[in-house]
Amino acid sequence: MSLTLKLARDRAYRTAHVDWKAVEADARLLVVSKGEDAAIRFVLKSLGDGHSFYRPPRQGVTPLLAATTAPQASVRVLSQLQAPQDGVPVIRINGWSGTPQEAMAATAALRADLVSALSEPRCGVILDFSGNTGGNMWPMLVGLSPLLTEGVLGYFRDARGTDKSIEKKPGGIFFGDSVHALNSATALQPKHPAPLIAVAVGPRSSSSGEIVPIMFHGQSNVRLFGQRTSGQSTANSTFPLPNGGAANITTAVTLDRHGKVFDAHIEPEVSTEKPVEDAARWISRQCQHR
Q1: Which of 129, 128, 170, 176 minimizes the C-alpha distance to 149?
Q2: pLDDT digits (tens, 9 = 90+) for 192-239
Q3: Are 183 and 148 in contact (CB under 8 A)?
Q4: For residues 128 and 82, is the Cβ–Cβ distance under 8 A?
Q5: What is the DSSP code (8-state) at residue 19?
Q6: 81: which DSSP letter?
């Protein structure tokens, strides 16, 4: 519990809003009365960001091993190529997490879906994030990177006001000054461009299911459809704990390419309960006028 307190106090985005003396006193009482797990959850809930959370150690795994082992992958695949909507290709991007090796495979599979969707000339493509409840954002972003324009896509801003950029360059996706390792997952590129991109979001879109759409936000050929998202568009960092669990702490807010801060919900540009259908109509209409 002591490490969680230190990490939350030093790294959390909302650290300045917390009465740490009171939180520490209550957390130490909870360790005695209800155990360490309850105390850790209390500390993270005290941050008030609605996004920080505790992942307890997996049963049957020793603390030392659990602290150094990546989390198991989601049972779902990252992406699914759906039936076209009025002739417009649709890619569903699911919430996903896994090991670094699995992330490479997931990135390559998403890129393959994108290449397949754009194997023929199209007016556009629909990216469906409406059921994306979060996970690892990087396979999503790198897999879809051919759709993004070069330059800064967005930023993460920490509690000190320091911005770290997310950028697309000729070498792929960069985080700060570092090229992301997942760029090496695949060299596939779509045969044809997507002149228009519609991104579908909704109440189940959360965490990375919000952050990746924010990286598309503000691009001239992109429009967001759907309903207000869950409001967890902040960035989390995962810290292994001595007991084999992990503290997932909100350490930054997300900004789009134009510096617009997203610290809660995304309000799509087109409010609709049928985002995929309305997105397809938008793409088809725009196509007729091109």
Answers
A1: 170
A2: 999 999 999 999 999 999 999 999 999 999 999 999 999 998 888 899
A3: no
A4: yes
A5: -
A6: E
**pLDDT at site 152:** 97
Residue type, 253: V
Q: Give the whole-angstrom CA distance, residue 138 versus residue 112.
A: 16
| Predicted pLDDT at 1 | 82
Residue where the block lists tokens 């429009």: 223
Which CATH number does the domain 79-232+262-288 belong to among 2.60.40.10, 3.90.226.10, 3.40.50.300, 2.40.50.140? Answer: 3.90.226.10
Structure tokens, 276: 């995929």
Q: Where do the structural domains in the chain lie, given as residue ranges? A: 2-48, 79-232+262-288
Q: Could you tell me whether strands 196-201 and 222-226 are parallel, antiparallel, or unpaired per DSSP bridges? A: parallel
Identify the pLDDT of residue 263.
84
The neighbour count for residue 185, using CB atoms within 10 Å, is 22
Q: List 225's β-bridge partners, or say none.
A: 200, 270
Contacts of range 14-21, beta carbons closer than 8 Å, 24 or more positions apart: 14/47, 14/48, 14/49, 14/159, 14/250, 15/47, 15/159, 16/159, 17/47, 17/48, 18/46, 18/47, 18/48
DSSP tag of 74: P
Check if the beta carbon of residue 197 is closer than 8 Å to that of residue 157: no
Residue 231: φ, ψ to 5°? 95, 30
- Position 287 scores a pLDDT of 82
Q: How far apart are CA 14 and CA 159, in angstroms?
A: 7
Q: What's the number of CA atoms in the CB half-sphere (13 Å) around residue 82?
A: 20
Of 79, 224, 221, 254, residue with least CA distance to 149 = 221
| pLDDT at residue 75 tops 60 | no
- pTM of the entire predicted model: 0.87
